[in-house]
Amino acid sequence: MAQDPNSKQKLSPILGLPIDDEPATPASPPDEPEAADDDGRPQLSVIIPARNEAASLPDCLASLLSQDDEFFALGRDWELVVVDDDSADSTRTIATDAAAGRAGVHVLEAPHLELQATKRAFTGKTNACWAGAQRSMGRWLLFTDADTLHESGDLVRALHEAAKHNASLLSYSPRQIVHGFWQRALMPLVFSELASVYPPAQINDPAKRVAAANGQFLLVERDAYFAVGGHRMVGRSVLEDVDLAFNIKRSKRNIRLRYAPDALSTRMYRGFGDMVEGWTKNLALLFPHALMLAAWRLLDIALLLLPLLLFLFPYLVTWQKVAIMLLWGRNLWRFYSRVARSNFNAIDCAISVFALPLFIALLIQSWMKHKVFHQVAWKGRNYRA
To answer: Which terminus of the chain faces fewer neighbouring Cβ atoms within 10 Å, N or C?
Structure first.
């Protein structure tokens, strides 16, 4: 989700960090779509890129459409744009049914995506986001994922928050909905590391060069978006949210990122396989020193297994046993305190210790995919990394 431009590794910045080439440069200035004059624009365009999201999209759409009221009227004050990204399930049908007879809801088909080109221009998500942005009419653009659930009034409150903080880009980190032991154990580990590497205080400080955003909720001012080239400029990135945030901040505009359980929640992964594929795609990009991080977490395992010394060396004297247990207790508390920054509940943070081997394996696997094989997979597509 974030990037520091001073890093030796090129971060094409929750947050594409390392990508196959230099960022694509548009052949011509970004082509903002024709629209009515400012007085004719809705205040907000909500854009949902959706690929095979039949399981999640109905609830997402319901949570958004319920915000249509006389004070913030759909079709007058805001619009909803769903971009179907070549789905093989009923995603497009679900979106079309939601749009039927309702003003302000539009369903688009993403342009054809050429993955085999020598220099591909887009990933599936950036292609869909760019198509939605070109079709949009709002003064503000909200890019949000199909697996999000929006709290009542979060759209209006987000617009007010962006204005209050003079932010050209406002991004929320949602409350994470997790199911099953491995999701509950692994996700706190990942998010605690993100909190350490990308502190919101630095991200929100205009004097700092660190930038970050979360594509699950990314609200950006229209003029700022098109001024930096939008998703077309970061088209080849598999972590486009970070790249876009970096471009906005580099243009001397303010960005703001915060944890926002009051605004929305999300279920990122439906199963163990989805989770492994998703973090394999992202971890080596989110953490530029992935192998070093894996080594530190391996040390955590060693320190947390210190009590085994009491059984392996039963002849230890009392003071040695006490020293070992004190050291073990200190490291256990240090580990829990670090993971607690993830904003997950206490039980999930406690069981995260059991996911340390999985986290290490995913860090190494992600590094291998990006640095050795130069290819990652996501949602049935393979991308050169």
So the answer is: C
